[in-house]
Amino acid sequence: MTEHMNTTSRQAEEFIYHESRLLDERKFDEWLNLFTKSGIYWIPIDENADPASSPSITYDDSSLREQRVYQLMNLPHYAQIPPSRTVHILTNITVDNEAYESQPLIARCNMLVFELRPGDPLQFGLGEQRSFVGHCEYRLEQNEPNQLFIAMKKIVLINRDLPISNLSFIL
Fold first, then answer.
1. CA distance 170 to 67
2. Of 45, 94, 134, 165, which residue has the fewest beta carbons closer than 10 angstroms?
3. Computed from CA positions of residues 93, 99, 100, 105, in that sequence, does the dihedral angle turn out positive or negative?
4. pLDDT tens digits along 44-102
5. pTM over 0.85
């Protein structure tokens, strides 16, 4: 491996860890700034389907991401009262070799997100810790020197074809 490859892999890994920290700390405005203007946040049902013609759990362009964050932070979003606490655990971050010398850079990782909405467990969805497991694919662009941005974040959940209740937070 060349030094360029090591630096690129390290930068991608640090970038992905930084993104998950922003989500866990509910710094959603900063999270929005990690995307390119045309960036996509996508949670497919069928990972091989065309999102333009097939349903997805989530398929957000920049305006939908901004709307989602605005609602979470500024409106009485009842599915998030009280707000979810999350911990993102990311492993096996790799960068595709073909992407080193071209744009976009493709990074992949395994993801485990623990989510808890505190409260009385007698109320549906409160006081129960849930886990979301899957793998992520990032398409990263370097629009500025030494600065990566998300052109696409695709999260493929292992239970994507089963009912998922109250996925009202950001994975």
1. 12
2. 165
3. negative
4. 999 999 998 999 999 999 999 999 999 999 988 778 888 999 999 999 999 986 544 55
5. yes
Q: CA 20: distance to chain centroid? A: 8
Number of neighbouring beta carbons within 10 Å of residue 43:
23
Contact indicator for 12, 34 with CB cutoff of 8 Å? no
Bigger pLDDT: 89 vs 104: 89
Lowest-pLDDT range of 64-78, 112-126, 149-163:
112-126
For 19, 21, 51, 90, 166, the CA distances from 14, given in Å and listed in that order, are: 9, 11, 28, 11, 30
